[in-house]
Records
---
Amino acid sequence: MNSSLLFVVLIGLTLFSYWFGLKRSLKVAGGPEHKKDLTCLPEQFGLLTAMVCGLPALITLLIFNSAEQLVVEQLLTLTLPAKIQALSSIDLGLYLNNISSIAYSETTQSLLKIIATQGIELQTTASTVLQEQYKAALTLQTLNQQATWLKTALVLIIAVVSIIVLVRKFSLTYKARQKSETIIRALLVASSAIAILTTLGIVVSVLFESIHFFKSVSPVEFMFGTQWSPQTAMRVDQVGGSGTFGAVPLFAGTMLITFIAMILAVPVGLMIAIYLSQYASPRLRSIAKPMLEVLAGIPTVVYGFFAALTVAPVIRSVDESFGLSVASESALAAGLVMGTMIIPFVSSLSEDAISAVPKSLKEASLGMGATHSETVVNVLLPAALPGIVGAILLAVSRAIGETMIVVMAAGMAANLTANPLDSVTTVTVQIVTLLTGDQEFDSPKTLAAFALGLMLFITTLGLNVLALKVVRKYREQYD
């Protein structure tokens, strides 16, 4: 059976093992009326049985799925003619992809089945050029079938054997709860380790490619250059640009659009949070807050259409009426729409932070004679500052990482300007542009995307560190 069906079967077997472990513990105790004689509750025995059944089998399934294709390809390669095995890794990979396409193409499935079952000679069913490929396709199908059966048998055997071995250890003094907690603790540690290792893997991969980029382009030129034109000639005899990789216009455009978005999102979001948490009735808050959070669920491409078709023309018509020169795509249009999009991030998280402030602080302020507004400004907002800073930081990160709105409303021109009426671009837009289509990963043009990603990571890391210092300072004051 395939992996999806096997996973469903494994889930069912895990649920059965919970019931079986529970019943087995009651049998060990001598019946439900004697379950108090057990060291742990019967449910703890059932939970331990389910975990021992499901976890090893699931881990085996994941490992098998990860290594299955690689092992099958290696075994298939060993059956190929020597001239095919001698191909380069790239050519061999293309050949194996062609074999896989033949093996699982609907047009050749029936033919391969007839060849395999009736023993028809390949010379009578395929041209000379395709004979070796059809033989390899048959071998690939056989190997995949064998791998599927081996995977199914291995996973089910591990699950069943684990149940049998465990339930034989059940006794009145068996500490099922302690063992369950040990397994859960190990899962939590493994989850934390995966998160840390994933972060390290991202940083190392981006850093590795960035080092290759900085071997071709000076870091000084990249970080302080004011011209961005990554087009380069792919061959010596080809006519093309030499490439200029000054990233200052990209970061300037990113900061400009983010600044415009935050000017709109932070005050509006914060005032919404104050109103919902301190002034609105419970009924109004229960209706308004979910409706506001719908804005966060709208696809960014919809915001991009709104910015390009509605906001940008309105801004252009208004500014032209005052005699101002406005680009068809401007940073102001993108920033305003982006600010509208991230208002829910600021308002919702800030409202939660303000509502989490102990009521004793508010009541003490009101008892001292302060008005409601004075209490909000002088007591509640400072006390909720760590949560508010976290909300603003999340909104800034969201604005910096936005791509679609910028592409559709602000354009892709790398202009170094502080005028919000001009067309600009951002780091994320250029990363997408550089990695779109078939690219060679040994050219500075493509490697520049990784250098931009590294600089963006360093920038957001600096914002995180700054915000963390602010949070720690005021958290100590109000805890």
---
Amino acid sequence: MGGREKGEKDMSNEVIVNDSNFDQEVLLSEIPVMVDFWASWCAPCRMLAPIIEELAGEYAGKVKICKLNVDENQSTAARYGVRGIPALLLFKKGGIAAQSVGLQPKQNIKEMIDKVLA
């Protein structure tokens, strides 16, 4: 499934997605999926990363949390009109159910997820 990247601590609850596995991991998922569109050079993305890791643990089994590097997967980012990062897109049954752009407090992200789960 997710596999670990070198140098990253426990990412067992996060799935790394890319242009080739996006449809399978995200659009065909049985449960809602939140995708963090990010890039390594993006400071707000790095600030958001620990929050995304915490949410991946808190919502394990209810929401799949994925990360997509926009520099390495430009076609998927373009497909969803991602122009600013970090961008969080929450998919449910293959469609976008909610989204946010920019660094958000954890509580705001939780509220977005909880609305989609309700």
---
Amino acid sequence: MRGLYVQNVSKSFNGVKALDGVELSVEQGEFMVIMGPSGCGKTTLLLVILGALKPDKGLIWIGDREISRLPIEERNIGYVPQDFGLFPHLNVYENIAFGLRVKGYSKSEVDSKVKSLLRMVDLEGFELRKPRELSGGQRQRVALARALAINPSLLLLDEPLSNIDEATKSDVIANLKNLQRKTGITTVCVTHNPEDAFKLGDRIAIMYLGKIIQCGKPKEILENPKNEVIKRLIAPVLI
């Protein structure tokens, strides 16, 4: 069953193509990583899926629902930006509760949902802490809990490991994959780091100059890179 389908999507800025006929199919419950160098179009693609940018052409499907013309609030997508996007003046509980309150959930429903999410991301006891009092990994888990609170059909992650120190990165990767498996949510993540991509993704879509030039399981790409560009991009993993 397909979770996300991006069909022939293009997007230009001042005559320069950021996305050039992108095709991408993500299975329900899959963790898809879009990897590529800076400027290849991966974040633009994420924002088009989210609805923050409108494509010049092409369609986007979540399941059997075509969402290309829907506003962000009607797409039912959870999004975690690169800086996690937490409200610095709100504590952990209030950050997670924010989207639920906007959607009109009752006080008891909000409380029950937030407590359940705190257990899921292993942050019970941190409810009253502000983001500045948390580690990078803890802030990420708060951001994930907030994104998941609205029961999204799709989760988008923009460079989720870029603000995580190397010493704790392996734990954060394990926590992120475990949470995705636990929820079963279809997830699309973008990263410029090939080592992170190959540790995170069920499959990896490699982007270059606005196109996806190869998509497959990590082992398939490592054993059979399609061209010299891909060999160069995945070189750090081969060392």
